[in-house]
Amino acid sequence: MITVTKQSCPLTSTTVFLMAVACAFAVSTLYYNQPLLASIGATFGRSDADAGQIAMLTQLGYATGLLLLVPLGDRVDRKQLILTLLIFNMASLLAVALAPGFGPLKLASFAVGASAVTAQIIIPVVSGLASPQTRGRVVGTLLSGLSAGLLFARTLSGFVGAWGGWRTMFFLAVAIDLVVMAVVIAQLPQTERVTALPYTALLASLGSLLRNEPVLRAACVTGFLMFAAFSALWSTLAMLMARPPYHFGPDTVGAFGFVGIAGLLASPVIGRLVDRVGSRRMLLAGALILSIAFLLVGISASHLWLLLAAMALIDIGNRAGLVANQSRITALSITARSRLNTLFMTSYFLGGATGTAVGAGMAAIWGWHGLAITGFVFALAALCAHLLMTPFAAMPSSTHA
What we know:
This protein has helices at residues 13-28, 37-43, 48-68, 78-97, 102-114, 119-129, 135-164, 166-187, 199-212, 214-241, 250-255, 261-277, 279-297, 304-330, 337-389. The protein is mainly α. Helix 12 packs antiparallel against helix 13 and helix 13 packs across helix 15 (337-389).
């Protein structure tokens, strides 16, 4: 069992804040390359399409690490696992910064993504130490860190890349990882393994958890659908904004990312609401907000202020679903929190990939209306799935709780 308890190691607001900062810096490594792809391609004489492989491989590496490495958090000391992953992440970032050719750069980028999963180990550890009455607030704060990391990475990377070159950014990223390591060493409680399952059995147990935990299944389905709706917007925004009547370039479209500040500020509030009204009601609200927001998207082709309002609502609705889902799966088990988070986040990112593919196709044919239909259908499906599945998944199963 876990040797750290809330009594022996109280979860203070300072610890939660610093862990949110660690999550922000940890997830940033996924996004440093995105504003720099054109510069990276120019360095190696590659097209924009080739340079885009760098971002794709980084995300693919992240999905691989999520599936194969995060479950180890249930078998080994989480603190030592995080520190080990940070060391590998620093080595991978150095390999990117020093890459002599495009082939080695692709391999190093995959390794960066695979070793960037430390935030997904921190979140179940810290939220698991929180009391049931405060867990939603803690999860909301940690997820605010993830959102801040995305904004931080793209802003910092664009600035550093413009003034010092893209390689400089990855050298700087190594120093940022050292900051994360210092925070983890100083603030994250030491834990022992919570299961003695061999690694292969640990991975095999993922299927058993999915079969035995109806709450987990409901979270995976609703998370998949809500993030699919969210991703449909962001995967098509640049293409649609380049069309009439806006004719916006990539720099202006990139500035729309600051709309995410609404969700960033809302996360702690959403967390407190989850504690107060429960995850089921918050999920219902999140799906409804997403549905309404995509109705606004359908008429935003000539009303920019409506588009901005819809984007803020989409971010808040998706965030409500994410905080509520992670709060309820954390409560399911002491001994399987990392595996539960693995299953949920894997389904979550699969939903993002699905929403990206469907949204791009629909928007290419029907423009803003195609995007609106895509997002609304995904959001409505999430609402229906929640109403159908949650009554049967209201209580954690006795097997793991």
